[in-house]
Amino acid sequence: MSGHSKWAQIHRQKGAADTKRGALFTKLGNAITIAAKAGGGDVESNFRLRLVIDQARAANMPKDNIERAIKRGTGELAGEKIEAVTYEGFGPGGTAFIIECLTSNRNRSSATIKHVLTKYGGSLGGPNSVSWLFEQKGIIRVKKLDENLELELIDVGARDIVREPDNVAIYTAPNDLKKVKDFLEKQGVASEYAEVEFVAKEKKAVAENQKEKIQKFSEELDDSEDVNNYYTNAEI
User: Fold this and answer.
1) Which residue from 191, 202, 234 is spatially nearest to 215, judged by alpha carbons?
2) Interior CA angle at 111 toward 105 and 117, to 5°?
3) For 231, which DSSP code?
4) Average confidence (pLDDT) over 224-229
5) What are the tens digits of pLDDT across the range 137-167?
6) Which of 44, 51, 76, 236 has the fewest Cβ atoms within 10 angstroms?
7) Residue ranges of the TACO1/YebC-like second and third domain (predicted)?
């Protein structure tokens, strides 16, 4: 478990049943609305919006859904007020979780997160109760990367390049994410995913008898309509 749940969820649910796909589209739509509300509906001037739309396209979200979500954010269409809320807490086995929600009902989200944490032996924490265990990093995932580009990427702002079984992860400082993503696109390298995420400073080893519990806990977070993303220091 590496903490980038949205990326995993997009890939897992691209071919999922309509109900699962619909839930993912709702989450992505809310993220688009929040981004458009904060920075306007033009992707050329709103990098945050550009990132979320890229994620929506990767999930095969229909173009009409994307456009409606943008218009809700800019006020061209009416809709529920969506707000971003972040929770911190302890999951199974004392693992740390940061849970980001996009919700139309803050009380509902708080009750849901508290219930799921308690159900699996965890607890809801206060501000900064676990966030000090993480640092924010930009992350870009690409299918393939020519080794000849690695030095140039470092010059542009890449801090680390990790070759994983299914993709290559490129880590940056949050403020360098746009610069590195733009450089890759100019080189003809398409991003599968790009986002600023919380990355654990150190992973926490998990006992065998806790691994299944953490997996089920994470699945419940995925299934919650309010949870947009979550991050953990659990090493599974």
Assistant:
1) 234
2) 135
3) E
4) 92
5) 999 999 999 999 999 999 999 999 999 988 9
6) 44
7) 83-234
Inter-residue contact 53 to 66 (CB < 8 Å): yes
Predicted model pTM: 0.88
Six-digit token string for 149 = 């580009």
For the chain, the domains span 5-74, 83-132+201-235, 133-200
Tell me which residue of 219, 201, 136 sits closest to 172, measured CA to CA.
Answer: 136
Q: Does domain 133-200 have CATH number 3.30.70.980?
A: yes
Record the tokens describing residue 67, joined without a space: 């456009």
Token digits of residue 172: 């940056």
Q: Select from 68, 114, 64, 122 the least CA-distant residue to 91.
A: 122
Cβ contact 169:162 at 8 Å: yes
The structural architecture, per CATH, of the domain 5-74 is Orthogonal Bundle (1.10)
pLDDT higher than threshold 90 for residue 199 = yes
CATH number of 83-132+201-235: 3.30.70.980
> One fold for both 5-74 and 83-132+201-235?
no
Pairing state of beta strands 134-142 and 123-125?
unpaired
CA nearest neighbour of 198 among 58, 97, 116, 83? 97
Closest CA to 52 of 87, 85, 24, 20: 24
Q: Do residues 112 and 226 make contact, with C-beta atoms less than 8 angstroms apart?
A: yes
pLDDT for 1 equals: 47
DSSP calls for 131-194: GGGEEEEEEEEES---GGGHHHHHHHTEEEEEE-SS-EEEEE-GGGHHHHHHHHHHTT--EEEE
CA nearest neighbour of 217 among 202, 207, 203, 232? 232
